[in-house]
Amino acid sequence: MTWLTSVRWSPYAVGIGIGVLSWLTWLISGKPLGCSTSFARSAGMIEKMVWGEQAALKPYYQEVKPEVDWQWMLVLGMVIGSFLSSLLSGDFELVWIPSRWETAFGSGVGTRFIAAFLGGVLLGFGSRWADGCTSGHGISGTMLLAVSSWISAICFFIGGIVAAYLLYGRIA
Amino acid sequence: MNKRKEQLLRGLIFGILFGFLLQKGGVTKYDVIVGQLLLEDFTVLKIMLTAVLVGAVGLRLFQSLGWAQPSPKAGSWGRNAVGGLIFGIGFAVLGYCPGTIAGAIGNGYLDAAVGGLTGVVLGSGLLAAAYPRLRAGIWKQGDFGKLTLPQLFKVNDWAIIVPMSALILLLFYLLESAGL
Predict the structure, then answer these.
(1) What per-residue confidence (pLDDT) applies to A2?
(2) What is the distance in angstroms between the Cα of B69 and the nearest Cα belonging to chain A?
């Protein structure tokens, strides 16, 4: 069982695992692997707590109900699964700043947290704008040969590569 | 156990497996994701494209057998291209995506758990507020509906899946040959 305790698996083995998992989610639950809708549902749940039931009347929350559903549980499960995997391999570690960020931008926790926050806002806004994320469009939709998903996935990487090159000063 | 609870439990179990796989793949880490966007480490692309290849072949077979009826998402240029680019910028600045941020939290990354998660939820809420205007405006630009690549090129599904798989395998061969 050393494979359970190893830190890294071949990316191809992981990819096969995710491919098979996507078969199972369709066969058993009739759903694609996807994540970003759950963050919109969470936003709606928070709005409901703060502003009451009327928040759920917003047109968006009429379509994306502010409630816990299959995908919300999937995302929660991902936190647990990653925790178990990292615990088994001894790879779990509380990290304030990723090493690559620290090398490039210094050890200021505030700077990293503000960047993570701002990046998160764009990510949340963009994923719901595009109607999917790296899993919903990038994996689940592209394997269904959807034009919407291929355009989205390609744009995720175009935007991401250009922004990363600018951020890391690779483009003068 | 009622149907709803059963479905939620299944979601949780699938999520545990998904998160486990992502962590073993190393993509719950900022360094690996940014390494991909800087085109230095191709782990993210290798995982995604392997999953796409395996998933596409399997799902198409299950569809033929009548075991699953997966349906593609509708879209438009205004929705997918513009939203995709906004997503991409956030992807690079945060260094996680909506799925891997969940994995990163489980892996112990506090920048994901504190700054990142707050931002993603807030960004999603902002989109919900802008939704009526976007839906009536830019999302209508270049609308193509639930179009698939086989429909676009007017060919059989396998006429896309087979060459797509071959291209993915060729890309893997080139990456491995280049030591990436």
Answers:
(1) 87
(2) 8
Q: Do A142 and B102 touch (CB under 8 A)?
A: no
* Residue closest to B72 by CA, chosen among B83, B59, B84: B59
Say if B61 is an interface residue toward chain A (CB within 8 Å). no
- B97 vs A172, residue with greater confidence: B97
E strand spans, B25-166: 75-76, 143-145
Partner-chain residue, chosen from B11, B17, B125, that has the shortest CB–CB distance to A81: B17
From CA A172, how far away is CA A71, in angstroms rounded?
A: 41
Would you call A14 and B115 a contact, using CB atoms and an 8 Å cutoff?
Answer: no
CB contact (8 A) between residue B26 and residue A121: no
> How do residues B102-158 score in pLDDT, each as one tens digit?
999 999 999 999 999 999 999 999 999 999 999 999 999 999 999 999 999 999 999
Return the domain boundaries, chain A. Answer: 1-94, 96-172
> Could you give the CA distance from residue B35 to residue B32 in angstroms, rounded to a whole number?
5
Whole-number pLDDT of residue A171: 80
Number of neighbouring beta carbons within 10 Å of residue A44? 23
Of B45, B25, B5, B26, the closest CA to residue B171 belongs to: B45
Q: How far does B46 lie from chain A, in Å, by closest CA?
A: 6
Neighbours of B133 (CB within 10 A): 10
**Tokens 């800087």 label which residue?**
B38
- Chain-chain contact of A153 with B68 (C-beta, under 8 angstroms): no
**Tell me, what's the ipTM?**
0.97
B83 in contact with chain A, both atoms CB, cutoff 8 A: yes
Using the Cβ of B121 and the Cβ atoms of chain A, whether some distance falls under 8 Å is answered with yes
Beta bridge partners of A146: B148
> What global pTM score does this model have?
0.96
Is pLDDT above 80 for A109?
Answer: yes
Of A83, A115, A145, the CB nearest to B149: A145
Tokens of B88: 């991409």
CA distance B131 to B3: 32
Could you tell me which residues are beta bridge partners of residue B143? B76
